[in-house]
Amino acid sequence: MRVEYTSGRVPPSRAVIFDLDGTLVDTADDIASALNAALRANGFRPLTSQRVQKLVGNGASVLVEEALRIQGVKSSPEQVKKIKEHYLNSYCAKPVVATKAFPFAAEVLATLAARRFAIGICTNKPEKLAHIILQRLGLDVYIEALVASDSGYGQKPNPRPLLACAWELEVPPTRCVYVGDHSVDVQTARSAGIPIVAVGFGYSTVPVHDLGADCSIDCLSEFPDTLSNFY
C-alpha cells in the first residue's frame, strides 16, 4: 500500500497512523471464533468473545498463551506454535464474518485524506489478515502504508514498527499522530516519540483516561477536531 512520490508530487507533511483491532475495526468476534476453533481442535475449552476481547493487542502468540493460561495450562513454545498456526489458518478462512468498522471510521479516513494527511496502519495483526480486512471493509483505499507483526520490524510495544510506518509514509515521526486503544499502543508511541490519541471504545482493560495518552476520544467522529492539539 506504500505510495511512491514522483518528482512532480510533494509528499504530505503530516500523517495519522492507526492501530487496527479495537481502534478502526471491531474484530473481536471473528478473533474469538478462530481462536476457539483452534482451542477445541487441541482439546481445550472455548472462551467467550468478551474474554477473548480482553486478550487482544499483543499479537497471536500472546493471545494463545493467555488463552491457555486462563485455563490453567503452562504452555510450551511448541504447543503455542501449533495452536497459533491453527488459529491463523481458521482466521484467514473466515476473516470478515462479524467484523465491522467502528462508527465513522470511513468518514474520518476520507476527511483526513481530503485534508492531505498521509494515513497508515501499524498493527500486531499479521499483514495478510490486515490487508484482507481493510479491503473487504472498503477502508484500504485510504491507507498508504501498512506495517504488521510480520513485516520485519518486530511487534509493538517495540517502536520500530511505528517508526517504519512513518518512514513508509515519508513523514517525520514528529509530524505523525498515532491512534490506538491499548496500553501497548501508548507504550509504542512513547518509545517512538510520537503523540498518541487513545479511543475509549476499544479492547483495553484499563480505562481510557488512565492509559497515559496525550488525549482521548469516545468516538472516532471526534478525532479530526483533536488534531489541532498537535499541528
Write structural notes for this entry.
The protein is α/β, with parallel strands linked by helices. It has 2 domains: 15-26 and 99-229, 3-Layer(aba) Sandwich (Rossmann fold), CATH 3.40.50; 28-93, Putative phosphatase, domain 2 (DNA polymerase, domain 1, Orthogonal Bundle), CATH 1.10.150.240. Helix content is 39%, strand content 12%. The protein is built from 9 helices and 8 strands. The protein has helices at 28-41, 49-53, 60-70, 77-93, 105-114, 127-136, 160-169, 183-192, 223-226, and strands spanning 15-18, 25-26, 100-101, 118-122, 145-147, 176-180, 196-199, 215-217. The chain has a 6-stranded parallel sheet with strand order 5-4-1-6-7-8, with helices on both faces. The protein has a two-stranded antiparallel sheet with strand order 2-3. β6, α8 and β7 (196-199) form a beta-alpha-beta unit. α1 (28-41) crosses α4 (77-93) and α3 crosses α4 (77-93). The relative contact order is 0.18. The model is unreliable at 1-8 (pLDDT under 50).
Task: Please render the helix and strand layout as text.
Blueprint: E1 15-18, E2 25-26, H1 28-41, H2 49-53, H3 60-70, H4 77-93, E3 100-101, H5 105-114, E4 118-122, H6 127-136, E5 145-147, H7 160-169, E6 176-180, H8 183-192, E7 196-199, E8 215-217, H9 223-226
Parallel strand pairs: 1-4, 1-6, 4-5, 6-7, 7-8
Antiparallel strand pairs: 2-3
Helix pairs in contact: 1-4, 3-4
